[in-house]
Amino acid sequence: MTSSAEYLAGRISETARRLRPNAIRAMAPLLTRPGLISFAGGVPSAATFPADAIARIAARLIREEGSRVLQYGMTRGNRELAGFVVDRLRAKGISWTSPESLLLTSGSQQALDLLSRVLVDPGDVVFCELPSYIGGLSSLWAAGGDLVGISLGDDGPDLDELERRVLAVRSGGRTARLVYTIPTFQNPSGITASASSRAALVELAEKLDLLVIEDDPYSEVYFDASAPPPASLASMDTGGRVIYLGSLSKVLCPGLRAAWVVANPEISRYLELAKEGADLCSSTLDHAIAAEALREGLVDDRLPGIRSFYAERCAAMLAALQREAVPGCSWTLPTGGLFVWVTLPGSCDARQMLDACVDAGVAYVPGQPFFVDGSGANTLRLAFSKEDPDAIDAGITSLFRIVAAG
Ligand SMILES: Cc1ncc(COP(=O)(O)O)c(C=O)c1O
After folding, report:
1. Predicted pLDDT at 103
2. Rounded to 5 degrees, what are φ and ψ at 102?
3. Residues 162-193: pLDDT tens digits?
4. Residue 1's pLDDT band (boundaries 50, 70, 90)?
5. Atom of ligand 1 nearest to the CA of 106
6. Pocket test for ligand 1, best of 24, 132, 247, 385 (most atoms within 8 A of CB)
7. What percent of the chain has pLDDT over 90?
8. Atom of ligand 1 nearest to the CA of 43
9. CB-defined site of ligand 1, < 6 Å
């Protein structure tokens, strides 16, 4: 009998061996218990999906335009959907979009994978926030990136620390040219970078010759209709340094894998080549449905309802935290998105507490896997998207009973 290491030697690529399991997906079996109140899954609520309208659109497209929507499509993507995306980007002040800069993708996760392949060589240092989105980190690791975390404060990443680290890495002779950031209603923290922090990051990127991936799947999900988040980094960029990722997953549904990446045309050309090798084209049917949904107003008309849906759940969670949290805890106060981030007293270990919490009927995601430096043992992510306000109240009460019993 050969050992697993012997069997793998010479068979599995270096690239494959760099792949890391996603700590949240690995928790899935734990989270299927009937009756469990789950703050774990970072997914949008199915109650926000316009299922009947999508069924009607899909049936019509297949019946009447089957030869188009069941056929292969262009690698850059459905032109109609691209047109709607360009309109949305212009409305956000991202006016430099052109057919050569826009690539439609199978979710923004695919854009993160393609960007990692196109921009990262094994051993390159890539800067990310502490904490950051595990799916993005996985793609960057898979490409061989050496991920270095930058502290994230209430108004964005610590840019002095970023500058210091870039200079230190370069002075050691290593490549450091890429920053990965989620400036709006961040996954996992719920934090939104301020307008001044965004402007300063774009300026720093110019000064230090950095590229910035701005991953932005949540910015339309703001709670106060009169208070949208600050303008995107991409809208401030004049030097072709910001690469902007958007997605319909949180404002329509993630089952239609419809997203986009806007980059300097030179970079976008390579992204298109990488996508050809990955899947030739995104699902023609998904993207045709997404285009029709945008034409019918299924996103814009429903956004006010989606915003108030999540606003109510977030308010329930913040109220319950205010009432139940033990001394020494702190948490973020999101103004949009799906997540609240909790820091427990320093002696608590959120991973160790999880089994007791699941036994008590409530689940969350321990924060440590979101930190590339292995810190954050006393943190956890709470998604308020899945449960209704009463369940949120009950779940937070159970969770802090366990924390208090410590
Ligand atoms: C920050 C961030 N980026 C990207 C994604 C992937 O989204 P998509 O469904 O568009 O692939 C997610 C999904 O949760 C996310 O939170």
Report:
1. 98
2. -105, 130
3. 999 999 999 999 999 999 999 999 999 999 99
4. low
5. 11
6. 247
7. 88
8. 14
9. 42, 107-109, 133, 135-136, 182, 187, 215, 217, 247, 249, 254, 259
With beta carbons less than 8 A apart as the criterion, state whether 263 and 114 touch: no
**pLDDT tens digits along 84-100:** 999 999 999 998 888 89
Contact 22, 135 (CB under 8 A): yes
Give me the pLDDT at residue 127, please. Answer: 98
Return the residue whose CA atom lies nearest to atom 11 of ligand 1: 107
Place of tokens 């409305």: 91
Bridge partner residues of 337 (DSSP): none
Sign of CA dihedral 233, 76, 178, 365: positive
More confident residue, 41 or 255: 255
Q: Is the pLDDT of residue 28 over 90?
A: no
Residues contacting residue 53 through CB under 8 Å, at least 6 positions apart: 293, 296, 298
Domains and CATH numbers, the chain: 20-49+302-405 (3.90.1150.10), 52-295 (3.40.640.10)
pLDDT class for 347, splitting at 50, 70, 90?
Answer: confident
CA atoms within 13 A on the CB side of 108: 22
Question: What are the Cα distances from residue 32, in Å, to 214, 358, 361, 362, 380?
Answer: 33, 11, 11, 11, 19
Instruction: Using the structure block, give the residue that is written with the tokens 């910035």.
Output: 212
pLDDT of residue 321: 98
Decide the pairing of beta strands 125-130 and 146-153. Answer: parallel
CA 249 – ligand 1 centroid, Å = 7
Angle between helices 350-359 and 389-405 (to 10 degrees): 120
